[in-house]
Design goal:
Blueprint (H helix, E strand, L loop, with lengths): L1 H14 L19 H32 L4
């Protein structure tokens, strides 16, 4: 439910170094950007991480093909 999603969002945000709070009482002390922009920045950072993972997988797959591993 909502609580589980908020818990995952909070864990993921803090894993990638984003200062996020689920509600006003849980606000982090150091805010380099406004709390309202944290989710937008988190989305951009998540996209950037996913892009790197996909790129690495494609490079590995291409090298495996060139080396006749598959």
């Amino acid at each position: 439910g909502e609580l589980e999603m908020n818990g995952f969002l909070k864990m993921w945000a803090r894993t990638v170094g984003m200062p996020i709070g689920i509600n006003d009482e849980d606000k982090p002390e150091f805010l380099p950007i406004p709390q309202t922009d944290v989710k937008k920045a988190l989305l951009a950072r998540t996209f950037w991480i996913a892009l790197h993972i996909i790129t690495c997988c494609m490079i590995i797959a291409g090298n495996g093909r060139m080396l006749d591993l598959w």
